[in-house]
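From the methods appendix. Each design record in this collection lists the tokenized structure first, followed by the designed amino acid sequence. Records were kept in a plain field format so they could be parsed without special tools. The example shown here is representative of the layout used throughout.

RECORD:
FOLD TOKENS (208 positions):
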């Protein structure tokens, strides 16, 4: 079930960036961005045989070109590192961001293979005014009498549009979840040990 939730997360984020005319509009409210695109993207995926059949090359290409530009990986990594971020060198920071980015690519790729036909409802936001930060709340409605699953997107407004810096699935923050494991690794093996752990994990996932 957890993988299924990640799959829905992937579809929703994919929906944010699949249509350049909307995603490149920095004035479009983040909730409207999600609402207008997610249903269109699900329809596209359902009609694409390569996506439905899990074509690895095509899926990875879609993630690289459509999803990743809509994330603020620098901020995500910094938040996940917590207090340890200030102790890292610029080179270590770049390596951490690269490895964390790769890890999430593999996560989304694996999650897509478990996607089914859930319905996603996006809750409207109040007027944001000049606020540059927002939480877009959505609910995944599952079949077979299963409980709805809340998925929240923490987003910030940049000059080129809204960027995701954290995702919370059923009350569990992606950034907070990784912060716990990152802190544990740093305490045991230091910053370079964490980088090696992430690198080894990504290599193990590469062939899957």
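DESIGN:
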């Amino acid at each position: 079930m957890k993988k299924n939730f990640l799959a829905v997360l992937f579809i929703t984020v994919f929906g944010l960036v699949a249509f350049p005319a909307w995603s490149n509009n920095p004035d479009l409210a983040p909730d409207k961005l999600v609402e207008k695109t997610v249903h269109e993207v699900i329809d596209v995926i359902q009609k694409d045989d390569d996506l439905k059949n899990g074509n690895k090359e095509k899926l990875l290409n879609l993630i690289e070109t459509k999803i990743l530009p809509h994330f603020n990986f620098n901020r995500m990594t910094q938040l996940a590192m917590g207090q340890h971020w200030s102790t890292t060198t610029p080179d270590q920071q770049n390596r951490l961001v690269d490895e964390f980015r790769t890890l999430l690519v593999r996560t989304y790729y694996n999650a897509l293979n478990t996607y089914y036909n859930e319905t996603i409802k996006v809750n409207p936001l109040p007027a944001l005014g000049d606020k540059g930060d927002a939480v877009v709340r959505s609910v995944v409605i599952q079949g077979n009498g299963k409980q709805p699953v809340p998925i929240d997107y923490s987003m910030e407004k940049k000059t080129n549009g809204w960027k995701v810096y954290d995702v919370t699935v059923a009350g569990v923050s992606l950034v907070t979840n990784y912060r716990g494991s990152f802190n544990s690794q740093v305490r045991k093996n230091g910053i370079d040990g964490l980088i090696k752990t992430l690198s080894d994990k990504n290599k193990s996932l590469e062939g899957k």
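APPENDIX NOTE: The chain is about 55% helix and 15% strand.
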